[in-house]
Amino acid sequence: MTLEAARRVAPGLLLAAAVAAASLALAPASGALVRAAFGPQAPAVPAMVLALVLGMALGRVAARPAFAEGLGFCAKRLLRVAVALLGLRIAVGDVFALGAGTALLVVAAMAGTLAFAVWMGRRLGQEAGAGALAGAATAICGASATLAAAAALPAWRDKGRDVAFTVVAANAASTLAMLAYPPVAAALGFDARETGVLLGATIHDMAQVVGAAYAVSPGAGDAAVVVKLFRVLLLLPAVLALGWWFAARGPATGGAPTPAVPGFAVGFLLLCALNSVLPATGAVGAAWVPLRAALVEASSLGLLVAIAALGLGTSVRAVLGVGWRHLAVFGGASLALLVFVAGALALG
């Protein structure tokens, strides 16, 4: 990036970074308010949701031309780098720990949920991309998957609004699932491992997976985390498949000529491989472990700045006016995922 390009990007980047920093600062206070209102077990509002809401509240400020290029940089280029760094959270050994049967169940559930969400969205008259966002959020990993899918999908008129809605919906649905799904597992007679698989395969965000599963038992928690990590690993093939499918469909879905493998996908895969082979002990581990931790934190911060930029470019009125179809598609995809996984575990 040239000095002149950096000068043009700086105002929007600094504005998005300021909103992200404010969301981190406000997150503890929001947690205290939520617990005071709903009890000590109530989950805090994630910083990512706060960043989105604060950004939308400052939409009029962000509409100034001086911020446009920097906000675009955050929502596109910075987002892609942050998604690539997600590969550092995964190791191939996590996948082998699942077992073939569980791995196949998670893959089938993911593919079926993605296809169902796109189909249901089209049946209800939505843009295909909106259904794809809902499918990615429910099938893979909530807000992170929403942002990764948005980076790979072509543009449509209300894309920013649909991304913002999906991020908020994923967090709300994850919180409800954290409370509702453990009793479902108990009613179905699942043991600790089966409960962990159900929770790890169906709750959208990692924080809620951990909260729900470890509240059941340590065994359920361990199983849930491994399954959830495998879902994050599937982010790469799922996003690539969505991008290629939309490109192949062409004008019918707003697609473009079939793209090459995007750079962030290559980066994700390489970093996942690196995390799988580098040791955590010895001289190499002494250097690698803190570096990995710093890069994982950088990924989280990058995603937070990107979602702040998205909020700054999104109208509150537009998100509030999405209508019942968006809710129906997201709720339908979440329910389909739960029914599929619970049914397979009950029958297996």
From TrEMBL:
It is found in: Cell membrane. It is a multi-pass membrane protein. InterPro entries: UPF0324_pro. The chain crosses the membrane at residues 46-63, 95-120, 132-156, 163-184, 196-217, 229-247, 267-289, 301-320, 326-347. Its main location: membrane. Keywords: Cell membrane, Membrane, Transmembrane, Transmembrane helix. Belongs to the UPF0324 family. This is YeiH family protein.
